[in-house]
Backbone:
């Protein structure tokens, strides 16, 4: 059975931040945890599904692969933790469950440690000609960059950063509560320092204590030949700035291909409609067609060619991404029927119909011709 979309499973959008994904996971895991639903097989399966989705979407690399390849990319790293139910199987995300129900850290990184910056998305449209040859595109993005004044530590230069007295710099405090599980010890982010373990009496004036500032960045993206609407290009280190010494995220470029005025694309193949005359279809001919980028190709049309016939020009299509292979140019024959005929053309066609034994409508002579016939002139 096909698996549900991981974003749908967690109830978040595709542009959700790491914190939004984590909050959604915690809420759903608490609701469907087996200890909270003893004997409920449906809750158990839902809990496994939630954990599997979180394993992928909480990891930046796995999430990028899932965004690019969908479930086909996820199958390679979902692992036993998503398929086999049991505490030993949850290799990623179990720490969050452990935190909620048993109070341990579960090996998760504290909020006062380095945090990698989020990935950014950029939508880039290319032409079919650029798909054929590859190209380089100059783009402009607006992103968060590390503040040059405080170098990301959030404090005004020359001032002190104090250790939070409530959590003693750990960024976490302990809470004891009673629940259906009995007495539960919970480890929560310290509310005073917001989980950072630090207090900053004098925040940086340039970034208002955020450690990052919004800035415009121009860069060049290399687009290889053969890209299509499913292509995602990763530009490492060009995403948003990290926090507390963490590295920047990546820039994920989503490719879109503009429609062509004459050609249409199917995979690596190109398709072209070629209008020809009735006589050309019946007697055969050779015509020159214009392919992609003005490339001229000669197409042989054999006698008796019927409407809809497809004539193939090998290797005149698009290159395959990451390969030396190339698609074909497929020329579909369209027989044009003239709508306005000269008297000579009508005479020839009536003679043709007579020879072929084909019935056609009688000739409409028009009012003037009819009057002359009536007068015997």
Residues:
């Amino acid at each position: 059975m096909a698996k549900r979309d991981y974003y749908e499973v967690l109830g978040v959008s595709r542009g959700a931040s790491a914190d939004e994904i984590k909050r959604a996971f915690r809420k759903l895991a608490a609701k469907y945890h087996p200890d909270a639903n003893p004997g409920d097989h449906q809750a158990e399966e839902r809990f496994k599904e939630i954990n599997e989705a979180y394993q992928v979407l909480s990891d930046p690399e796995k999430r990028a692969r899932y965004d690019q390849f969908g479930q086909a990319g996820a199958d390679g790293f979902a692992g036993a933790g998503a398929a086999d139910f049991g505490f030993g199987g949850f290799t990623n995300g179990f720490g969050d469950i452990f935190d909620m129900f048993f109070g341990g850290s579960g090996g998760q990184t504290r909020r006062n440690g380095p945090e990698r910056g989020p990935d950014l998305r950029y939508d880039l449209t290319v032409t079919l000609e650029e798909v054929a040859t590859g190209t380089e595109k100059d783009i402009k993005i607006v992103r968060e960059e590390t503040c040059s004044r405080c170098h990301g530590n959030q404090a005004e230069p020359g001032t002190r950063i104090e250790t939070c007295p409530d959590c003693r710099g750990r960024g976490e405090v302990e809470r004891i509560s009673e629940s259906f599980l009995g007495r539960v010890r919970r480890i929560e982010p310290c509310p005073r320092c917001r989980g950072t373990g630090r207090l900053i009496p004098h925040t940086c004036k340039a970034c208002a204590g955020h450690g990052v500032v919004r800035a415009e960045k121009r860069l060049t993206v290399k687009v290889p030949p053969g890209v299509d609407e499913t292509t995602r290009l990763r530009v490492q280190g060009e995403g948003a700035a990290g926090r507390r010494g963490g590295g920047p995220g990546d820039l994920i470029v989503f490719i879109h291909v503009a429609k062509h005025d004459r050609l249409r694309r199917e995979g690596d193949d190109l398709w072209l409609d070629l209008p020809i005359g009735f006589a050309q279809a019946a007697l055969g001919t050779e015509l020159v067609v214009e392919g992609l980028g003005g490339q001229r190709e000669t197409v042989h049309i054999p006698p008796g060619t019927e409407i809809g016939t497809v004539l193939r020009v090998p290797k005149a299509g698009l290159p395959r991404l990451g390969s030396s292979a190339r698609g074909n140019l497929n020329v579909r024959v369209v027989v044009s029927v003239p709508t306005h005929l000269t008297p000579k053309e009508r005479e020839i066609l009536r003679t043709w119909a007579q020879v072929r034994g084909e019935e056609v409508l009688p000739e409409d002579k028009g009012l003037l011709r009819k009057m002359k016939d009536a007068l015997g002139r």
